[in-house]
């Protein structure tokens, strides 16, 4: 019998004891289902894709379409592209452009020459990694003051030895005059004091305690060469940094050599620059109109996410927070800067050279690298968050596509209108208003392509083509 253009919606109420249960027993089309769209009852109505029921395309809009495996593959709609609807909390955010920068005073260290002299040896070239305490340069002393200070120190050491011998002889000679003993003891105190002063002077001139002890005190030899070593890592001088110091992977890299072998240098002159990029910063550029939101985010320690894109890849760094906001607005651009700390990591490799083994470092994040900073400003509780490609717009009416079943090897997708309450570059936030239900399977990509195919099917129907259920897209 030919299907009527308007089918009748019937229901039967069957009473079981004191509780009534409603069974929907009739077929449905667009005019009747419209009464129940967006409600829980819609889930119990027969779908347009039920084979036993069938449907007449002229009666209303087609809401479902079957995609062949080839069509799904062309739009990347495989098993991994099907997401389960979940209700969660989301935060509105604004995005600002950012760039990775060094942290002044900590990322770059200049190594000065402790003494005046001539550079006789350079241990490492530019780009090589060095640990604290590794030798960097040898310097030949040619400063007259340093040589004289060492000579005076050796003279004081000899005087102390003579004084010690006299005191030992006085202790063995019972006829030694007590007044002379007291004079020797006073002389010892005076010599020890002068030795301490002279040793501090040598330290100020750039000699190390190890050099003074080994060469001057033990061997009695004047130091002619001084070795300059890589300095220790410096903490930032606050409790938070000290607590996390062990978690950071420190390593120095020789960024630039500022001297060459044979150069005559003065005390304090720069020898090289070392970089330690274990922790960098992201500098965000914010318009002044967002200053209040930014200041509020700083006060409540809002979460910040950095997004790095380039060369077809995308990396998201979560768990960041604002460190500071500038108090100065640039007059020309009307912007100000904010700063976010960024923990870094590295990979290393070694060059096997028996005469000169070297280690090189590649830091993951580098100064000058650009990114986007997403700063959370307002919570949106109890909502549904979907990828941006999961939502299509049908005449400004957003919609998603639910997987409702299979027909042979084809998946059947059903259009559902939704209410978008917020959208970013990456995600769309829709209201949890029963337009879709938690647990439903949604296409996370290709929504616009599916919508175009569905609209084409509806145009075919309106033109009299008579599309039947089971029509599918290849």
N/C terminus separation: 32 Å
Strands side by side in the biggest sheet: 5-14-17-16-15-20
- Discrete helix count: 8
What does the overall shape look like?
elongated
Structural class computed from helices and strand pairing: alpha+beta
How would you describe the overall organization of this protein?
It is a single chain. With 474 residues, the chain is an alpha+beta fold. Among the domains are: 1-46, no CATH class; 93-104 and 276-379, Elongation Factor Tu (Ef-tu), domain 3, CATH 2.40.30; 113-269, no CATH class. It is 23% helix and 38% strand. It has 8 helices and 27 strands. The protein has helices at 30-33, 69-74, 144-172, 178-204, 209-219, 239-243, 291-299, 447-462, and strands at 11-16, 19-24, 64-67, 82-84, 87-101, 108-112, 117-122, 129-130, 135-141, 225-229, 252-257, 264-265, 270-275, 279-287, 303-310, 313-325, 335-343, 346-351, 358-363, 370-387, 392-394, 397-407, 410-417, 420-423, 427-431, 441-443, 472-473. Strands 5-14-17-16-15-20 form a 6-stranded antiparallel beta barrel. Strands 21-22-23-3-27 form a 5-stranded mixed sheet. It has a 4-stranded antiparallel sheet with strand order 6-13-11-8, with no helix packed on it. Helix 3 (144-172) packs antiparallel against helix 4 (178-204). The protein starts with 10 loop residues before the first strand and ends with a strand.
């Amino acid at each position: 019998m030919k299907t009527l253009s308007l089918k009748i919606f019937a229901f039967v109420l069957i009473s079981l004891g004191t509780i009534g249960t409603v069974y929907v027993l009739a077929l449905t089309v667009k005019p009747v289902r419209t009464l129940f769209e967006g409600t829980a009852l819609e889930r119990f109505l027969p779908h347009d894709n039920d084979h036993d029921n069938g449907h007449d395309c002229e009666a209303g809009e087609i809401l479902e379409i079957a995609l062949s495996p080839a069509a799904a593959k062309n739009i990347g709609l495989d098993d991994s592209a099907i997401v389960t609807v979940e209700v969660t909390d989301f935060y509105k955010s604004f995005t600002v452009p950012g760039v990775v920068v060094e942290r002044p005073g900590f990322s770059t260290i200049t190594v000065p020459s402790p003494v005046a002299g001539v550079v006789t040896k350079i241990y490492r070239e530019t780009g090589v990694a060095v640990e604290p305490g590794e030798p960097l340069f040898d310097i030949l002393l040619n400063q007259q003051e340093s040589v004289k200070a060492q000579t005076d120190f050796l003279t004081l050491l000899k005087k102390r030895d003579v004084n010690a011998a006299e005191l030992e002889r006085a202790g063995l000679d019972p006829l030694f005059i007590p007044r002379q003993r007291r004079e020797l003891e006073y002389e010892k105190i005076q010599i020890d004091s002068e030795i301490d002063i002279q040793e501090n002077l040598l330290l100020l001139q750039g000699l190390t305690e190890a050099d003074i002890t080994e060469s001057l005190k033990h061997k009695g030899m004047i130091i002619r060469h001084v070795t300059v070593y890589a300095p220790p890592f410096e903490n930032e001088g606050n409790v938070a940094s000290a607590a996390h110091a062990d978690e950071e992977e420190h390593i120095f890299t020789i960024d630039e050599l500022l001297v060459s072998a044979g150069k005559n240098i003065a005390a304090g002159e720069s020898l090289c620059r070392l970089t330690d990029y274990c922790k960098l910063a992201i500098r965000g550029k914010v318009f002044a109109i967002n200053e209040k939101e930014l200041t509020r985010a700083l006060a409540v320690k809002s979460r910040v996410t950095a997004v790095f894109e380039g060369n077809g890849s995308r990396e998201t760094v979560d768990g960041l927070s604002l460190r500071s906001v500038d108090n100065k607005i640039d007059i020309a651009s009307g912007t100000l800067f904010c700063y976010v700390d960024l923990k870094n990591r590295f990979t290393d490799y070694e060059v096997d050279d028996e005469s000169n083994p070297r280690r090189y470092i590649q830091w993951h994040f580098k100064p000058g690298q650009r990114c986007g900073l997403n700063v959370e400003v307002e919570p949106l509780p109890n909502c549904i968050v979907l990828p941006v490609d999961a939502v299509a717009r049908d005449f400004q009416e957003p919609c998603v596509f639910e997987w409702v079943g299979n027909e042979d090897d084809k998946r059947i997708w059903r259009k559902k209108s939704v209410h978008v309450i917020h959208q970013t570059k990456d995600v769309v936030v829709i209201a949890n208003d029963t337009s879709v239900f938690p647990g439903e399977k949604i296409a996370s990509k290709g929504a616009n392509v599916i919508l175009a195919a569905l609209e084409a099917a509806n145009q075919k129907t309106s033109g009299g083509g008579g599309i039947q259920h089971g029509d599918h897209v290849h």
